[in-house]
UniProtKB/TrEMBL annotation:
PANTHER family: TRANSMEMBRANE PROTEIN 121B (PTHR47399). It holds the Pfam family CECR6_TMEM121. InterPro entries: CECR6 (IPR026624), CECR6/TMEM121 (IPR032776). The gene is TMEM121B. The keyword Transmembrane helix applies. Keywords: Membrane, Transmembrane, Transmembrane helix. Belongs to the TMEM121 family. This is Transmembrane protein 121B. It comes from Nothobranchius furzeri. The chain crosses the membrane at residues 33-51, 57-76, 96-115, 146-164, 204-225, 237-260.
Length: 328
């Protein structure tokens, strides 16, 4: 006799329970780190703004509460979306793998964070607060640099808190996007440090550096939404290329001015800017050709796949038998 569809033996349940518990603990740990980093960065920036100005201090705290609440709502909605997928509702498919719905609403969480964080940093850098921090605050400008760079581990904790399959294609794709964004942020931050030391001779170059840094900070909104999309289209390839162009092209121009006009030393990141522009362009051409070919021969659209979980892989109450899926 074969087991009925949707049934699960007690032995399979016992074997899969530790795996589900481990994933739950891991997700909870990263979600906790997300909230700790949000509160820490927001509190330090608020401290800088409140102690040296009287610019509506309560509004800065209210902004942080909105961001933390928004992330809390995101995690709740994301968890609900996972339960619905486990029950077979709202299935999504993509060439990146069957677990693509993991990133549902993640782009909104990061967008809220960028909108709240950007005005604070700009206000600190563009007023006398920066000089007062250097003179009167412990750790000075170094503390400000560390606080601003907390965005990088925050992004890592965000994508790690919602990934289910640690060996799946979705996780590898998200890690690739994260590493690219991390490199762009570090690249632009090297020039931002020169702005903090007043070593950028032109005001136009200074504002270019500031703008590029916040563009790089906002880029995850694009690829997080791409990870949520049901299928890969040419517009996502152009969006990915466009964000790389908006970051690397202005930084390359700034570094060319530094080297050829102001006779500053050549930075190794200058090679990175040229390399990334070339790689992104070749990637755009290659993938656009692939997508158009899939459209031409597929008829209904590129990369339409099933949700990859059969009824026999479902546990009671709609949860997925991850052990059965892994072994199949």
């Amino acid at each position: 006799m074969f087991p009925a569809a949707g049934s699960m033996t007690s032995g399979e349940f016992v074997q899969s329970a530790p795996l589900l518990e481990t994933r739950s603990i891991r997700s909870l740990m990263y979600k906790t780190l997300c909230f700790l980093l949000l509160v820490l960065q927001g509190a330090v920036l608020d401290f800088y703004l409140i102690i040296f100005t009287d610019l509506y201090w309560c509004s800065w705290i209210a902004t942080d509460l909105v961001v933390v609440s928004g992330w809390g709502i995101f995690f709740l909605k994301n968890a609900r979306s996972k339960r619905e997928r486990a029950c077979g509702f709202h299935q999504k498919s993509s060439i990146f793998g069957c677990n693509l719905g993991e990133f549902t609403y993640a782009y909104l969480a990061w967008l809220i964070y960028v909108i709240a964080c950007t005005p604070k940093v700009v206000l600190i850098l563009e007023t006398s607060i920066l000089g007062l921090i250097a003179l009167k605050v412990p750790c000075g400008v170094t503390g400000l640099k560390v606080t601003v760079l907390l965005s990088v581990p925050l992004l890592f904790c965000l994508i790690s808190s919602i990934v289910v399959d640690l060996n799946g294609p979705t996780r590898h794709h998200s890690q690739t996007c994260f590493l690219s964004t991390c490199l762009d942020l570090l690249d632009s931050f090297t020039l931002l440090e020169m702005v903090l030391r007043a070593e950028i001779p032109s005001v136009y170059l200074k504002y270019t550096v500031l703008s590029v840094y916040f563009v790089a900070l906002a880029v995850p909104v694009v690829w997080l939404y791409e990870l949520t999309a049901a299928e890969l289209r040419c517009r996502w390839l152009w969006a990915r290329f466009g964000t790389g162009l908006l970051v690397n092209a202005p930084l390359l121009v700034v570094r060319c001015f530094q080297v050829y006009v102001y006779k500053m030393p050549v930075s190794v990141f200058m090679f990175k800017n040229v390399l990334f522009l070339g790689i992104r362009f070749l990637e755009l051409l290659e993938q656009c050709v692939t997508v158009r070919r899939l459209w031409r021969f597929g008829g209904t659209g590129p990369a339409q796949f099933s949700h990859c979980v059969s009824e026999n892989d479902m546990c009671p109450h709609g949860y997925v038998n991850t052990l059965a899926v892994t072994q199949s």
